């Protein structure tokens, strides 16, 4: 039997990204280090404006940027305006840039960082984030709020939550299991994010149902069944080969080459804009929790002013507009009580067709339902865990297997030898895959 990896068209292929202009070059960014013991940290001067670091705006028509601008034009005279810096669109590179900007003995380059939710534990454990007190917990979606906690304390507030959803051609059946999905997809009929980056990790976590309980690796029957079905779908070419990231997988679906698409909520608005009729539902077995958190840098000279900005972004009216205009899933419960059509205007001309109230309500319902079972490992060494997981699966795929069950058993053995070291942050964890 030919090697599985030989037919995957680059599944989980390695990519190297170089940043040359206006970016921070980071060759390696280990867990951030605290100031040396016995050496008092410097007193950071108060800036004239709040400095905010974030990733690229993936919302439809850049409406998240418009919300930042709205703060500057409508805030009170006692509030500070913000300068927003967009870092690399590549998640792993963005993380390294944020670490480099906050760590060390000097003052942080930014007052507020908009972190991928999976990184919050790492940044909090390194002492880079200011604890958030007086949080009105009943305002927030519990799963989203939990992503900002570390060791029982809140270090960030959610800004936009995310959960994997299944988009399907109008009339295609809604599958109950992964095997049902692959059977309904047909040849090359299911497309997901399968490149060697964080999106590939998320896809693997969804197939296995999460595989983590706290910091403990659990490969139960559900995880192995998911892996076996995934292997068989690859063998029978039910999954589009790729490699795909968010943009490429969405294009594959828009152009009609796939019947099913795994993507984030914002994809629905892009499908509406492209005139594609699609249904949306939770993924079989539940999705992986994603999203971004708002964190204030420790030693920021504008901590109180930054908190006012953070609270503004999480207001229910702003959350509703981020959802209906940009496709960001709300983080506050009040935003799920009703749907407000998009009211923001584009700066560069007429807005393209937007989702109707009925379409938005359908998407919002799917998101809220999916959030009920969504989860994501909360690990200090999440980045190492993520890369080791992909490395182990890639190594197992290089071997021949007689069945999906044989493949799942091999993955279980590889992960048992490597993931505990990765979770603990021990170097060379990926060597345990073989």
TrEMBL record:
<keyword id="KW-0813">Transport</keyword>
<dbReference type="InterPro" id="IPR006059">
    <property type="entry name" value="SBP"/>
</dbReference>
<dbReference type="InterPro" id="IPR050490">
    <property type="entry name" value="Bact_solute-bd_prot1"/>
</dbReference>
<keyword id="KW-0762">Sugar transport</keyword>
<dbReference type="Pfam" id="PF13416">
    <property type="entry name" value="SBP_bac_8"/>
</dbReference>
<protein>
    <submittedName>
        <fullName>Multiple sugar transport system substrate-binding protein</fullName>
    </submittedName>
</protein>
């Amino acid at each position: 039997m030919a090697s599985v990896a030989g037919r995957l068209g680059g599944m989980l292929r390695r990519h190297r990204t170089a940043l040359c202009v206006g970016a921070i070059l980071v060759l390696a960014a280990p867990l951030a280090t605290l100031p040396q013991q016995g050496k008092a940290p410097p007193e950071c001067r108060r800036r004239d404006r709040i400095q905010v670091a974030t990733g690229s705006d993936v919302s439809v028509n850049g409406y998240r940027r418009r919300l930042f601008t709205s703060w500057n034009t409508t805030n009170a005279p006692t509030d500070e305006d913000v300068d927003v810096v967009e870092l690399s669109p590549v998640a792993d590179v963005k993380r390294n840039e944020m670490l480099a900007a906050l760590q060390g003995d000097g003052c942080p380059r930014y007052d507020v960082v908009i972190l991928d939710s999976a990184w919050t534990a790492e940044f909090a454990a390194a002492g880079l984030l200011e604890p958030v007190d007086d949080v009105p917990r009943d305002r927030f979606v519990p799963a989203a709020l939990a992503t900002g906690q570390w060791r029982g304390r809140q270090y960030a507030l959610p800004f936009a939550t995310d959960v994997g959803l299944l988009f399907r051609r109008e009339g295609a059946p809604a599958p109950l299991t992964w095997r049902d999905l692959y059977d309904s997809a047909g040849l090359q009929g299911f497309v997901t994010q399968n490149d060697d980056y964080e999106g590939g990790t998320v896809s693997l976590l969804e197939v296995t149902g999460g595989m983590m309980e706290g910091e403990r690796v659990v490969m139960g029957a559900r995880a192995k069944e998911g892996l076996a079905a995934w292997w068989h779908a690859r063998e029978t070419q039910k999954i589009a080969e790729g490699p795909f990231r968010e943009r490429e997988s969405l294009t594959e679906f828009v152009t009609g080459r796939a019947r099913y698409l795994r993507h984030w909520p914002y994809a629905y608005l892009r499908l509406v804009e492209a005139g594609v009729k699609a249904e949306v539902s939770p993924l079989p077995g539940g999705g992986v929790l994603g999203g971004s958190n708002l964190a204030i840098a420790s030693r920021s000279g504008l901590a109180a002013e930054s908190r006012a900005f953070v609270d503004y972004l999480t207001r229910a009216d702003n959350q509703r507009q981020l959802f209906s205009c940009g496709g960001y899933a709300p983080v506050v419960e009040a935003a799920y009580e009703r749907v407000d059509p998009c009211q923001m205007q584009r700066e560069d001309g007429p807005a393209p067709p937007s989702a109707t109230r009925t379409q938005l309500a359908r998407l919002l319902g799917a998101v809220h339902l999916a959030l009920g079972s969504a989860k994501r490992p909360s690990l200090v060494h999440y980045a190492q865990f993520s890369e080791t997981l992909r490395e182990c699966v890639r190594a197992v795929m290089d071997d021949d297997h007689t069945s999906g069950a044989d493949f799942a058993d091999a993955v279980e053995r590889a992960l048992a030898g490597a993931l505990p070291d990765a979770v603990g942050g021990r170097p060379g964890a990926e060597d345990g895959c073989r």
